[in-house]
Write a structure and sequence with these properties.
By secondary structure, the protein is an alpha/beta fold. The chain is built from 37 helices and 56 strands. The strands form 17 sheets. The chain has a 6-stranded mixed beta sheet with strand order 41-39-40-37-36-44. The protein has a 5-stranded mixed beta sheet with strand order 2-1-5-3-4, with no helix packed on it. A 5-stranded parallel beta sheet has the order 8-7-6-13-31, covered by helices on one side. Helix 12 crosses helix 13. The protein is globular and about 130 Å long. The two termini are 37 Å apart. Bound molecules: flavin-adenine dinucleotide.
Length: 1249
């Protein structure tokens, strides 16, 4: 149960308060209030602030119950042995009984007259199902025909017609209230029905449903509703509608071919009103109803076309619909099918089944055709399939015709083909036979216009002549019934409501495809939602009135004559229909709540009734039958190679994955961004996962140099950020190190004992002072940092002056080169001769420890740098000791701790040192330690083989290019960015992950032979197969023969750092240089880029850490930004010796400071199920908003909640009230702008601007 509850404040209060005062009027203490309706079991529990007034509660309850009158509701509490009726100004109590309402469900509005339903087709029967579900039996269905099933199936279809859509998604009792396991009417969900039943079976299923649900008892068949008249005045509560009904005699025939039916003759010009012959045996009558709907259908009249010279043609010409065409005429003949709409598919199929010789499909435009598998995929998909994904699915079948669906006139897409939307005047024709016939050359699509006919010849506008043609089937579309407007006195359609009256509803299967995402290829889901919406408005008329008065019902309107002069007002396109549903679902939470689980159902029922095996078995059987019968009929040579069915179970499984993961987030991202009103050109974007983008990255023309197997430092658990440095209670360890001199030690320290076996050096600061001190008690000498000596003494509980003598004081630089004995013997004789000496570096500070730092170059970034500079290790890894495996456990190089995880080994290592008397102090200190920014677990550094781009060599060029750019703020460019460039280090571009763009290097086992693959085509040559995707699982098995006798070369394991991909954007997004050369050259360098600080998270860490710079957060924010730009610069400089952009603006970040109040309230509401849109718990912690910390409200939820005031009251009253979360400072009228949504996106943009 959902309740729209909006805290309400006294209008005298000051809502403009900001800062600490904001929201102060609203107590944050909540109490669970239990509302009980006396005499019922219903209890509604609400979390309310204790200061909530009864008046406020009344408002909330009224909205929840369909805006019933406030004054009807009262609250009573028990006080001692008496009862008290609470006053408007009283505060709410914990337990109250509610009077004046019967239920917490909205009461259904009662009308004085019954409901009328015109049309006993798909939608009419669906309406009856919904009414009966709610026990609303007072309705009548009228139809001109003597059967249920509607014009579409009783008249437009013919003997050979089959359902193009899977029955699972079409059947009339589709919907969770009617077709669900456990519901037995109509035999339950149709698991045993054919996947694509014939016309007769479809009609049978309508009849079955009408019979089982008792719908026949409500039917007035063979009755023409001639006109509808309004009784009373528009908008008045007591208005009604009079349906003037005339009994008619439908004329139908059972044989295919021959003359038009009587009413078809009559209907040619005027449509069907009055076209049917009157049944004089029955009387005309008037039916009065309070609400009615008309579902007239729109595939009514075949569009008429007359060719010049038609009479000379000398062959068979007929319309390819209704019972007119005798398909015996096509057997063994050359057939022209004129038009490329949904009916074309049926005619191709029928011709192919009858055994024509050849089909010319002549059309002005080649429209998209949908294979069976793709239709099923769309109808089961939740969330909807994106345009790009849909095209990729279609592509598989289109390959058989040698055509790329991406090239269709109806497709708009970005250059990288990652986004697509469709605009096509006709809906999809669905079927596989189209593709098979094209593959065998039995059907040829001829994009042209018919100019004229002569004997057995059709002359096309291009000049081409199609000769020896025997048959022309006209399939140039179906027109709606233009008399519908007249019957209903319809001036316009507002949404789906005739003349904007919420009691008069009409929709017919909208025309065309206008979509970027595909939710269904069939009327099934759409009809379910239309009827639900219509009934909701009938049931809760107050909601309509309130929303309308408040100006929120910005529904699309349609007038006759738009877009063509003969288009009636009732005939809308898909855009209008989607806009209506979308708008209403935004402004009416109650309706939205009803549709919440629809996606889940849609997916479930498709798989339940038509699992993929059933689908594929049926599709394959049909395919094979064509293969067989075409050979048998001689249409295809008997020895022609069999064409395998293009879709497989494995392929479908792959597509499920694709749509689930990446595409899901893609569409989610788009939805959120568009709701925010942020300007992003999604239609022309690119995805780095796309083959074309990835191919750009592997283009061999990029003059990037890979260092031949260098070592880089990387953390075990992936990335870490500055925020990821959390405090850790760490072990602090002093240890004595034997010098060459007897009983003399260097007192070094570490917080990572597990790195001690890998120690190769010690490091002091050359500028700091060091002491040699001698214990008066033992004579032992220690070298220590002078600044830390007092702290050391206090740690080991000694008195520096009394217990020790200072022997000397020296600068750190003077200690350089002092050799010492290794602490452990594991690498004695294995490390380079230069190991185990004192080194100097400025990074050693006086902030912690002893000012003498232990160096393990395999596990510390600074250690690595310092040891590299001193020649203790070399760039190619020589001298490195590295006894830790991939799981963080010791290898056999350190047998004492073999197999122990490093962290577990800490204890044993300290024990061993203690036993050997090398441990001076073991204590704990809280210090900064890198943690994984996702999982919050401590990380360790480890050296791994990596691939670098040589940036150091290009420093000068980078600086010169940077100087050509303009930055806001400028100091970022001139100071930090410039400084960074002057010290730019080689850029490690490899990552050890699974997902990412694989590095295109194939190497021999000794790494001496390295082949860089430069294009997909080159890779395909080696692979001997088509490469559809460049991700690891598609290419890692490919091996390349060595040119140097080194066997087969294998791809290196690594993938590119994702920032390499980001830096490749200017080139990769355009698939340059493979294509888009001109476009690229026009747009490079970019005139302007803007980068958000949060874009550079990974970069910041890896690059900053490599620089050895410790930065504070404030500085880091700017630097993060600059690094993204740098990477772009690096590639730009390497590739074109040019900066990739001219101007740059650094965006800031909004921190999580506004969420606290919001979060508390949303948590309460969520817990009690009071809002249909819940908000995740969150707290304002002042940090950057982060998914891990969950310190922000989900923007989607935020929008949903922002809508709530709209569903509640008039614009004026809302304006005066604060928002649901009082402290946010967002003004109601701005929010109202946001939410009142004729076109949400457009409005949002206006708002944002
Ligand atoms: C050959 C064909 C194949 C199709 N295949 C598919 C498919 O595979 N999948 C799919 O989803 N869709 C398909 N469709 C689309 C089809 O339009 C819908 O599936 C659905 O059947 C339409 O139902 P409807 O109730 O909107 O309209 P209709 O079936 O057209 O019914 C409208 C009814 O209203 C009655 N009516 C109108 N005005 C009056 C009046 N004034 N008085 C009395 N009665 C009146 C008419 O007599 C008619 O029976 C197909 C359509 C055709 C023609």
């Amino acid at each position: 149960m959902a309740l729209e509850l909006i805290p309400y404040k006294d209008e005298k209060q000051d809502f403009s308060a900001t800062g600490a005062k904001a929201g102060a009027l609203c107590s944050t203490t909540h109490v669970d209030c239990h509302l009980v309706i006396p005499g019922t079991q219903e209890v509604l529990t609400l979390p309310l602030q204790i200061c909530t007034k009864i008046q406020e509660l009344k408002h909330a309850l009224s909205a929840k119950l369909g805006y019933i009158e406030h004054s009807e509701i009262s609250f009573v509490v028990k006080q001692g042995c008496t009862y008290k009726r609470l006053q408007e100004s009283d505060q709410v109590m914990k337990r109250m009984s509610v009077h004046g309402i019967k239920s917490f469900r909205p009461p259904r509005h009662r009308y004085p007259h019954p409901y009328g339903i015109i049309g006993a087709g798909y939608n009419g029967i669906k309406t009856a199902l919904f009414l009966l579900r709610d026990n609303q039996k007072d309705f009548t269905i009228f139809d001109r025909y003597d059967k249920v099933g509607g014009h579409a199936w009783l008249e437009s279809a013919n003997k050979t017609t089959r359902l193009q859509i899977e029955f699972a998604t079409y059947h009339i009792w589709y919907g969770q209230d009617f077709s669900y396991p456990g519901i037995e009417k109509c035999g339950g969900p149709p698991v045993d029905w054919e996947v694509w039943p014939s016309r007769d079976r479809v009609i049978e299923h309508f009849e079955l449903c009408a019979r089982e649900y008792g719908i026949y008892a409500h039917c007035q068949l063979s009755v023409d509703v001639e006109s509808v008249d309004l009784i009373g005045r528009e908008k008045k509560d007591d208005r009604a509608f009079q349906l003037s009904c005339r009994p008619v005699l439908p004329h139908r025939k059972d044989c295919q071919g021959g003359e038009k039916l009587d009413h078809q003759e009559q209907a040619t010009e005027a449509g069907y009103a009055g076209a049917f012959r009157t049944d004089k045996s029955r009387k005309s009558f008037v039916f009065t109803c309070s609400c009615y709907c008309i579902w007239p259908g729109n595939l009514i009249n075949p569009r008429q076309i007359q060719y010049v010279g038609e009479e000379l043609f000398d062959g068979f010409i007929e319309y390819g619909v209704e019972m007119r065409c005798d398909y015996q005429n096509v057997v063994g003949k050359n057939v022209i099918i004129h038009g490329h709409g949904a009916f074309t598919m049926e005619n191709i199929r029928t011709c192919c089944e009858y055994g024509m010789k050849h089909i010319y499909l002549v059309c002005r435009k080649r429209n998209l055709t949908c294979p069976r598998v793709v239709s099923w995929f769309i109808n089961q998909a939740s969330p909807p399939v994106t345009g790009a994904h849909c095209l990729n699915l279609l592509k598989v079948a289109y390959r058989l015709c040698g055509y790329d669906p991406w090239d269709m006139h109806s497709v708009s897409c970005n250059a990288a083909r990652t986004n697509a939307s469709f605009a096509q005047k006709t809906r999809f024709g669905i079927g596989d036979v189209y593709f098979l016939a094209a593959a065998y050359g039995l059907m040829e699509v001829v994009v042209d216009n018919i100019k004229r006919c002569s004997s057995r010849t059709v002359h096309l506008e291009s000049g081409r002549k199609l000769q020896d043609v025997d048959v022309i089937l006209k399939c140039v579309g179906m027109l709606p019934d233009s008399t519908v407007d007249k019957v209903n006195k319809m001036k316009f359609l507002r949404g789906c409501w005739i003349n904007g009256d919420p009691r008069r509803f009409t929709v017919s299967d909208p025309d065309g495809i206008y979509a970027a995402n595909f939710a269904a290829t069939t009327i099934g889901p759409g009809a379910y939602n239309w009827v639900q919406l219509m009934k909701h408005v009938w049931d809760c008329p107050n909601e309509w009135i309130q929303l309308d008065e408040a100006g929120h019902l910005n529904l699309p309107e349609h007038y006759a004559g738009d877009p063509d002069p003969d288009t009636p007002a009732y005939f809308i396109n898909a855009r209008h229909s989607v806009g209506t549903m979308f708008t209403y679902s935004i402004v009416s939470p109650a309706y939205r709540e009803m549709t919440t689980h629809f996606d889940t159902y849609k997916h479930f029922i498709a798989h339940h009734c038509c699992p993929v095996d059933k689908l594929l078995t049926a599709a394959l059987a049909e395919w094979n039958e064509y293969e067989r019968s075409w050979r048998e009929k001689g249409m295809v040579p008997k020895d022609a190679p069999y064409i395998p069915y293009p879709y497989t179970k494995e392929y479908i499984a792959e597509q499920h994955e694709a749509s689930k993961e990446v595409q899901r987030f893609t569409s989610e991202w788009r939805r959120i961004v568009e709701r925010f009103g942020r300007w992003i050109d999604f239609d022309n974007d690119y995805k780095t996962m796309d083959r074309s983008f990835m191919e750009r990255l592997v283009d061999e023309e990029i003059p990037l140099t890979f260092a031949p197997y260098l070592l880089d430092l990387i953390v075990l658990s992936d990335q870490v950020t500055v925020e990821g440095f959390c405090n850790l209670l760490a072990t602090l360890l002093f240890w004595g190190q034997i010098l060459l001199q007897e009983n003399s030690y260097v007192l070094a320290w570490t917080t990572t004992p597990w790195t001690l076996p890998s120690n190769l050096a010690l490091c002091v600061n050359p500028e700091l002072k060091y002491l040699q001190v001698q214990s008066k008690a033992t004579g032992t000498k220690w070298i220590v940092g002078k600044d830390r000596w007092p702290w050391i003494c206090s740690s080991i509980k000694k008195n520096g002056e009394k217990d020790f003598t200072v022997l000397w004081e020296k600068k750190g630089s003077e200690l350089k080169g002092i050799k010492y004995e290794p602490l452990f013997d594991f690498f004695r004789g294995k490390a380079l001769g230069s190991a185990w000496q004192i080194l100097t570096d400025n990074y050693v500070s006086t902030e912690a420890g002893t000012c003498i730092v232990h160096q393990a170059p395999a596990f510390g970034e600074d250690d690595n740098r310092v040891c590299l500079a001193a020649g203790i290790i070399q760039k190619d890894g020589t001298g490195m000791v590295h006894p830790i495996d991939d799981s963080g456990c010791f290898t056999k190089e350190v047998p004492d701790f073999l197999g122990q995880h490093v962290k577990a080994a800490d204890k044993d290592i300290k024990e061993k040192l203690k036993k050997e008397n090398k441990l001076v102090f073991n204590g704990t200190e809280v210090h900064n330690y890198p943690h994984c920014w996702r999982s919050d677990t401590p990380l360790i550094y480890r050296a791994i083989p990596s691939w670098f781009i040589k940036v150091e060599e290009a420093r000068e060029k980078l600086i010169a290019n940077n100087n050509q750019t303009y930055w806001v703020p400028s100091f970022v460019k001139e100071k930090r960015f410039h400084n960074w460039l002057t010290e730019a280090r080689d850029w490690c571009v490899s990552r050890n992950r699974y997902w990412g763009t694989p590095i295109p290097l194939w190497v021999s086992s000794d790494f001496e032979e390295v082949v860089c693959i430069g294009s997909v085509a080159e890779l395909e040559q080696f692979a001997g197969r088509e490469i559809k995707d460049l991700h690891r699982h598609f290419i890692d098995d490919i091996q390349i023969p060595s040119q140097k006798g080194k066997g087969m070369l294998k791809r290196v394991d690594e993938v590119f750092d994702c920032w390499f991909e980001s830096g490749s954007m200017p080139y990769g997004s355009k698939h340059y240089p493979f294509e888009g050369k001109e476009e690229f050259e026009k747009s490079f360098p970019a005139q302007f880029i803007a980068e958000g600080l949060d874009q550079t998270r990974g970069w910041f860490y890896t690059l900053m850490a490599r620089q050895g710079t410790r930065v504070r957060n404030s500085v880091a924010l700017h630097l993060k930004m600059t690094l993204a730009a740098t990477l772009c610069q690096v590639l730009g400089t390497h590739l074109f010796d040019s900066p990739p952009f001219q101007n740059l603006i650094v965006n800031g970040l909004v921190l999580a400071v506004l969420c606290l109040e919001f979060a508390k309230r949303s948590m309460d509401l969520k817990r009690n199920g009071l809002v249909c849109n819940t908000v995740r718990p969150c707290k304002a912690d002042g940090k950057k908003m982060s998914k891990r910390l969950k310190n922000y409200p989900d923007p989607q939820d935020l929008f949903d909640l922002l809508r709530q005031p709209i569903a509640r009251g008039s614009r004026e009253s809302l304006k005066k009230k604060s928002l649901f979360f009082g402290s946010s400072q967002l003004k109601v009228d701005r929010i109202m702008k946001l939410s009142a949504c004729r076109c949400a996106v457009r409005r949002l943009r206006t708002f944002v601007v």
